[in-house]
């Protein structure tokens, strides 16, 4: 049970150059309790936990453990005190075994030789305490990502960790691996470990956390027991304004319009088979499914990234066969792909160049493209999409946060006037505030008459955006929900093969 704080941070301040990013932050973490730490990118979360974990030095403030002030001067000092930060990026040694990784940096040795039997015994003791069964002698590099993360947690506990800090631990995990991690965290809570949990996923907060703390612009703006606060106040604390809610009354207005996008009996190799789908103007249809379901491949086929080998694809009533995304763009289809870094962005180019790229022919004057015209196009969407940047059209796109990069790419198709918009995993890797901005922009796109297809494995995207939700499993559509029937239980039940008749 949660009690007095194990860890107390008081008046923590930190500046980088002339910019102060933490303005006297107070934070408590109690033993046997999970404190979720939320905030938009740049709010100060990572800076705060890095100070607690000894990776950064605070400019002012005090950290106390069990009421005793401590000098957490570096990572080694923090670890000796039982504070350990588990980063989002795996930091194991792939060629070494599970046992060797768990006791990494503290191998039992005699006369310069590692004592293998004791190494295995220590590793097994930690894994047993976690309730985890992993092959001790297997190279870590051959494990699944979720298993490697469990090894990271075991290493953190091998030295009697009393306060564990998780930084976006489920970002790359499957549903099964995420649930296993939550079981481990529940076990750590019962053992009296204090846990700080950084996440962008609100459903995780209400699943595992006892308390929630929100940072905005270097200040604590909300600290409540999870049982006493709802989802919307948390979002509003993060973004600093009220949350816009979707209006399902719009559903009736699009019901009788002919589809702008139609797939009939569409198949593409083993990716998807016999898919029938129609999307009308001003309608948002979500394709929901886990990795391998075929949802993303169907959406990408509409943009010419996968061939429709059987059946047909029609855009605005005209049957088409796209050989390349350029054909789709010419037909009025835009796309925000799942991997924005590799498939959507020109990383070395400016935000203006990135936004204007598909519209160069239209904004050129006399066949010549100028930076001024690109800048005009960028400024047209900078404020409308609430892109958080310096507002300088020459700012490199790689300097923006993930959510703002997504908004620049979305602005690309708004500038072009695409009548069909395909979005694949549109909120992957973005914070809660950026999610709300992307949701708002997508709804605005639909309200202007575009047909919008969203392929996602995130049920929150579906619930927040979709007028209709189509669930896919193993390349086939298995269920469809509309209006208020679109809910988490219905979506996850159908995706897991449980369909209510």
Describe what you observe in this structure:
The protein folds into two domains: about 5-240, Rossmann fold (3-Layer(aba) Sandwich), CATH 3.40.50; about 245-330 and about 420-500, P-loop containing nucleotide triphosphate hydrolases (Rossmann fold), CATH 3.40.50. The mean pLDDT is about 85. Helix 17 (about 430-445) links the parallel strand 19 (about 420-425) and strand 20. The protein has about 500 residues and is of the alpha/beta class. Helix 4 (about 115-130) crosses helix 5, helix 15 (about 370-380) crosses helix 16 and helix 16 runs parallel beside helix 17. The strands form five sheets. The chain has a six-stranded mixed β-sheet with strand order 6-9-10-3-11-12, sandwiched between helices. Helices cover about 35% and strands about 25% of the residues.
Please indicate the count of domains: 2
Percentage of residues assigned to helices: 25-40%
CATH C-level label of the largest domain: Alpha Beta
Distance between the termini: 42 Å
Percent strand: 15-25%
- Mean of the pLDDT scores? 83
| Count of helix runs | 19
Instruction: Report on the biggest sheet.
Output: 6 strands, mixed
Rg calculated over all Cα atoms: 25 Å
- Quantity of strands, as a count: 22
CATH architectural type of the largest domain? 3-Layer(aba) Sandwich
Unreliable runs:
none
Across the major sheet, the strand order is 6-9-10-3-11-12
Task: Assign an overall shape.
Answer: globular
The CATH homologous superfamily of the largest domain corresponds to P-loop containing nucleotide triphosphate hydrolases
User: And the CATH topology of the largest domain?
Assistant: Rossmann fold
Structural class: alpha/beta
């Amino acid at each position: 049970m949660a009690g007095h704080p194990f860890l107390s941070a008081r008046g923590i301040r930190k500046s980088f150059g002339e910019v102060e990013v933490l303005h006297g932050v107070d934070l408590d973490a109690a033993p046997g309790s999970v404190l979720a730490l939320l905030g938009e990118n740049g709010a100060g979360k990572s800076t705060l936990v890095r100070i607690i974990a000894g990776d950064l030095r605070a400019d002012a403030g005090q950290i106390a453990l069990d009421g005793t002030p401590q000098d957490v001067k570096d990572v080694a000092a923090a670890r000796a005190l039982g504070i350990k930060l588990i980063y989002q990026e795996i930091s194991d040694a792939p060629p070494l075994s599970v046992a060797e990784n768990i006791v990494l940096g503290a191998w039992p040795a005699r006369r310069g030789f590692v004592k293998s039997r004791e190494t295995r015994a220590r590793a097994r003791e930690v894994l047993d305490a976690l309730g985890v069964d992993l092959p001790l002698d297997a190279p870590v590099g051959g494990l699944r990502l979720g298993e490697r993360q469990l090894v990271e947690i075991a290493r953190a506990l091998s030295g009697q960790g009393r306060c564990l800090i998780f930084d976006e631990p489920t970002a790359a995990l499957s549903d099964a691996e995420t649930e296993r991690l939550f079981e481990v965290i529940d076990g750590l809570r019962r053992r009296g470990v204090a846990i700080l949990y950084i996440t962008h996923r609100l459903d995780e907060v209400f699943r595992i956390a006892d308390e929630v703390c929100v940072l905005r612009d270097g200040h604590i703006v909300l600290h409540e027991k999870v049982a006493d606060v709802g989802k919307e106040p948390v979002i509003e604390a993060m973004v600093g304004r009220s949350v816009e809610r979707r209006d399902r009354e719009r559903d009736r207005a699009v019901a009788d319009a002919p589809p702008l996008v139609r797939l009939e009996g569409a198949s593409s190799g083993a990716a998807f088979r016999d898919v029938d789908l129609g999307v009308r103007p001003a309608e948002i249809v979500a394709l929901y499914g886990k990795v391998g379901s075929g949802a993303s491949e169907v959406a990408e086929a509409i943009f010419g990234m996968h061939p429709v080998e059987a059946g047909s694809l029609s855009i605005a009533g005209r049957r088409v066969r796209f050989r390349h995304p350029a054909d789709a763009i010419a037909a009025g289809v835009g796309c925000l792909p799942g991997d924005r870094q590799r498939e959507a962005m020109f990383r070395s180019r400016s935000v203006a160049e990135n936004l204007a790229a598909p519209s160069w022919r239209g904004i050129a004057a006399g066949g010549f493209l100028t930076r001024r015209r690109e800048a005009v196009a960028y400024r047209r969407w900078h404020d409308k999409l609430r892109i958080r940047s310096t507002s300088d059209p020459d700012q490199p796109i790689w300097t923006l946060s993930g959510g703002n990069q997504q908004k620049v790419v979305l602005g690309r198709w708004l500038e072009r006037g695409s009548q069909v918009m395909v979005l694949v995993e549109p909120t992957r890797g973005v914070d809660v505030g950026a999610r709300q901005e992307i949701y708002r922009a997508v709804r605005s796109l639909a309200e202007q008459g575009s047909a919008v297809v969203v392929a996602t494995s995130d049920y929150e995207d579906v619930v927040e955006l979709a007028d209709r939700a189509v669930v896919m499993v193993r390349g086939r559509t298995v269920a469809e929900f509309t209006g208020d029937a679109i809910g988490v239980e219905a979506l996850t039940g159908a995706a897991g093969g449980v369909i209510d008749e």
